[in-house]
C-alpha cells in the first residue's frame, strides 16, 4: 500500500521520484502504534528535508499519515519518503514543495546470519538517507552473484563504512565497535549504543580497516525492519553468531517498547 499525503498515489505524481530519484526517506517498524526511536526518525526527516529541499517538514503531519496507514493493523515496516512532485532537474535549487509518501510492507520473519563480501564503494552524501540507491543496490547485486548474502562497503583507504541499507557493528575484546567514517548515523545503531551503555557494555566508534576484520569475534548489521542481525562471515572469514554481547543486544532491543505515534 502506498499513499501520497493520505490518498492513493497516482503514476503521474510519482513520475518525478521515478525519473529523477531525488528525495529522502526513513524506514520504521510500527507495532501496536509504536515505533522504536520515533523521535530519531522524525529528526532525520526534518534534517534531510532542510538539506535536500531547503524546507521544513510538518512532523505532526508525518505522524498522522503513518497512523492512518497502519491503524489497527498488524506490525508493518513503514517507509516515509519525502520528495517534490514538481522537481525540475534544471532548477534543483528552486523553492521546493516536498510531499509525503507513505508505503508499508510486511515485517520480515526470522532472518539467518549473513555472509558478507567487501567492496570499495562510497555513497553520495552518506550522512543522509536519500533515495539514490542505484550504486548501493548494484553493489549488492554483484555481491549476490559472487555467492554472498550482501555487501559491506569500504572507502578508498580500505576503511569499513556501512552496507547498502544498514549499519554494521563489531564485537572484539568484550566491546562493541562502530565504523566511524562516511556512513549513515542509523537510528537502530543509535538505539543500540544506548542499550549498550545501559547494559554496561563498552561501545565506541573506531577506524576499522579490512585488515582488522579477521580479528573480530562477531559482527551484526542493523536496520529498523529487522533490528540487529548476526553476520556469520566476511570475505569467507567465520564469525561467532552466538556471542553473548550480541545476544544481550538482540534481547534488549526486542524489549524496547517504542514511542507512541
Automatic annotation (TrEMBL):
Protein origin, superkingdom: Bacteria
Keyword annotations of the record: Aminotransferase, Lyase, Transferase
UniProt cross-references to Gene3D superfamilies, sorted A to Z: 3.30.470.10, D-amino Acid Aminotransferase, subunit A, domain 2 (3.20.10.10)
Organism annotation: Sphaerisporangium krabiense
InterPro entries assigned to the protein according to its UniProt record, in alphabetical order: Aminotrans_IV, Aminotransferase-like, BCAT-like_C, BCAT-like_N
Recorded GO MF terms: lyase activity; transaminase activity
Protein name: Branched-subunit amino acid aminotransferase/4-amino-4-deoxychorismate lyase
Pfam families for the chain: Aminotran_4
Keyword Nucleus tagged: no
Amino acid at each position: 500500500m502506498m499513499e501520497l499525503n493520505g490518498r492513493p498515489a497516482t503514476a503521474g505524481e510519482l513520475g518525478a521520484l521515478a525519473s529523477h530519484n531525488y528525495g529522502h526517506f526513513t524506514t520504521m517498524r510500527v507495532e501496536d502504534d509504536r515505533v522504536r526511536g520515533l523521535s530519531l526518525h522524525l529528526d532525520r526527516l526534518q534534517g534531510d528535508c532542510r538539506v535536500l529541499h531547503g524546507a521544513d517538514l510538518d512532523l505532526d503531519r508525518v505522524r498522522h499519515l503513518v497512523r492512518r496507514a497502519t491503524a489497527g493493523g498488524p506490525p508493518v515496516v513503514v517507509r516515509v519518503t519525502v520528495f517534490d512532485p514538481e522537481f525540475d532537474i534544471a532548477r534543483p535549487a528552486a523553492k521546493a514543495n516536498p510531499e509525503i509518501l507513505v508505503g508499508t510492507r510486511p515485517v520480515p520473519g526470522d532472518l539467518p546470519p549473513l555472509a558478507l563480501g567487501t567492496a570499495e564503494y562510497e555513497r553520495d552524501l552518506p550522512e543522509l538517507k536519500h533515495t539514490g540507491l542505484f550504486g548501493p543496490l548494484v553493489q549488492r547485486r554483484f555481491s549476490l552473484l559472487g555467492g554472498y548474502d550482501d555487501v559491506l562497503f569500504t572507502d578508498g583507504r580500505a576503511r569499513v563504512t556501512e552496507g547498502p541499507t544498514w549499519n554494521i557493528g563489531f564485537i572484539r575484546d568484550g566491546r562493541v565497535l562502530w565504523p566511524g567514517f562516511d556512513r549513515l548515523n542509523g537510528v537502530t545503531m543509535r538505539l543500540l549504543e544506548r542499550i549498550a551503555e545501559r547494559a554496561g557494555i563498552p561501545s565506541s566508534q573506531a577506524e576499522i580497516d579490512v585488515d582488522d576484520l579477521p580479528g573480530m569475534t562477531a559482527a551484526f548489521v542493523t536496520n529498523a525492519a529487522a533490528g540487529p542481525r548476526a553476520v556469520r562471515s566476511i570475505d569467507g572469514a567465520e564469525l561467532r553468531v552466538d556471542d553473548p554481547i550480541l545476544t544481550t543486544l538482540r534481547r534488549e532491543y526486542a524489549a524496547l517498547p517504542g514511542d507512541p505515534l
